[in-house]
Design brief:
The chain is of the alpha/beta class and 173 residues long. 27% of the residues lie in helices and 21% in strands. It contains 5 helices and 6 strands. The chain has helices spanning 39-49, 70-75, 105-112, 130-138, 158-169; strands at 6-7, 26-32, 82-88, 91-97, 117-123, 144-149. It is globular and about 45 Å long. It starts with 5 loop residues before the first strand and ends with a helix.
Length: 173
């Protein structure tokens, strides 16, 4: 199913070792956002298009790589942070999929301590939501970029979402 190295960020189940890389060639990149913004779905596409997996997993079908706990598959949400390695240009990218639900915010906080940067995913219809604001504040010490997702949905607004980023998160875009 997948060819990459899969590592639970804080648990040691299902660990496969990878060839060593110098620290200068390793990056830990987190995916952070409000629940249902598309973190795991985006992660699945990154794994597929990088060649790590041969198919795109689906959250609704419960067959994603990073959501493998029975409760995650049953509920269709990420409960525990998970990392998967993607080799890129002689670098090792550890992609960390974090939960979006406020009840599992401690997982995001733990993940932020090891991240070199983060991708903040925003729902193009919903814009900046409460948990997005929370993880944005929690991640103030690391570089971040925005990814506006779900632009194919009715009611999506790129310009509106960018304006919300500026107003609600107090940052330049």
């Amino acid at each position: 199913m997948w060819k990459g190295t899969f590592v639970r960020l804080f648990h040691t189940s299902r660990v496969v070792t990878a060839p060593p890389h110098p620290l200068s060639k390793i990056r830990n990149i987190g995916i952070i956002a409000h629940i249902d913004a598309g973190k795991t779905t985006t992660t699945e596409r990154m794994l597929y298009y990088s060649g790590i997996t041969s198919r795109i997993g689906n959250v609704d079908q419960g067959d994603t790589v990073t959501d493998f706990l029975p409760a995650e598959r049953e509920r269709g949400i990420t409960i525990q942070s998970a990392a998967i390695t993607i080799p890129w240009n002689k670098h090792k990218i550890n992609l960390i999929d974090t939960p979006g639900h406020a009840d599992f915010g401690f997982e995001v906080i733990r993940s932020l301590k090891v991240l070199d940067g983060a991708v903040t995913i925003l729902d193009g219809v919903a814009g900046v939501e409460a948990q997005t604001e929370k993880v944005w504040k929690q991640s103030k010490a690391i570089p971040k970029m925005f990814f506006i997702n779900k632009m194919d949905r009715e009611g999506a607004g790129f310009s509106r979402t960018v304006k919300e980023i500026i107003a609600k998160l107090g940052t330049r875009v």
